[in-house]
Amino acid sequence: MKQVISFALILVPGAYTWWVGRNLVRHIDDPAFPELRFARGQRLSIVIAVSLVAGLFLSLDYIAVKVALLVLAIVAGDFPARKEIFGESWGLMGRVWHAARLVVAMLGGWLLLAWIPLIALWSEGFAVPVAVVLVVATLLWSHMNARAVPRIMGAEPLASPELEAQFESVLSGAKCRRPRLSRVGARGGYWVNAMAVPSLQTPGVVFTNDLLDALTPAETRAIFAHEVAHLEYFDRMRLIKRALVMAALAVILLVVVVKYGPQSAVISTLTWVWPLVVLAVLAMLVAGNQAREHESDVRAVELVGEPESLISALTKIHDLMRMPRRWRSGSEARMSHPSLAKRLRAIREAAGVRGIETSESGPIDVIVLRSADDSSEAVVMAEDRIHWLKGLEPDAGGDATALLAEARDCRSIRYDDLTDLRLEVQG
Q1: Full-model pTM
Q2: 267 pLDDT band (50/70/90 cuts)?
Q3: Which residues of 97-223 form beta strands (DSSP E)?
């Protein structure tokens, strides 16, 4: 009975995702929709944590199966809302198949390593040869990762002379091997992304078709420069260290299986302990991802020679994927990427541009906006902060300094601390 309840708890996040998604799609036209969607994601992470801990507390058996089922349930639960948000035309099986291929492509070797104790336990008398085969497969997967990822995702060669010519200026200053360029589609889905695939032999960069359709050649070049920066970071030494970590884990596991046998209590315990060990190692390997994203943005500006194409590309990607430009206060440290606002500010600083304060022609004037509904209210966008003014006289002039002095109530926030700003234009 405990096992049944444990599996039921694992399915709760999927049901929650479906239920909340029904309400979310009613607000697609809301200007704050990206923030609403992000808030749902924050709540979902709490539901996932509680359900997973509660489910595993009842039973630690089949932990790898339960985690896979959890992911599948969330993908299925999110499907109706996602389909409406992005105008996708694929069916549920197409979405699940796409998500499964992506997970296997990016984490296949690590997933196989995590499942070895469970498969060995199921193999009974053939546990040792099965474990040997799986360990060898894990190590080969790690070695052939750069070739495996595009094939699993169904990618094709980029085959775009125009873009490849654009990329030459980036590659001429790059400090990594020339990458293999690929493109991949979602076949009925919507997917705006690009990814670097590091390798000791031939690295790769994969673009999605939707990204290539959405960006200009200059913007695509800037995103390519960002991915090249990732390839530069994962140099030969870092890749060898990662390969050695995986090899060490695989050898340790194999020794344990050979020594204790498949039916021992040790192997039974490993079926739930080992996936946690692999997850902990993965977490350590990806630690500091935000810093790497920042460094890759800065390096991309160096490779391209100007910041505006990268700024434009990142802004488009966030808008198309309905992502907020700023994360909620306290959430940014837990995210895999910095917020768009933080990234754009860092890019401008790296390029020696102060964004709103300066332009090619010099300082930007302070902007004053009077409320269309209430003449006693106004907004002043100064160089370093924004001011909300109330209690103005109806005939007050448009000079920012005079308005600030005359306002009975003034609230000021620095742009660095501003979560979001939306203006409603009335015709």
Answers
A1: 0.81
A2: confident
A3: 156-157, 180-184, 194-197, 204-208
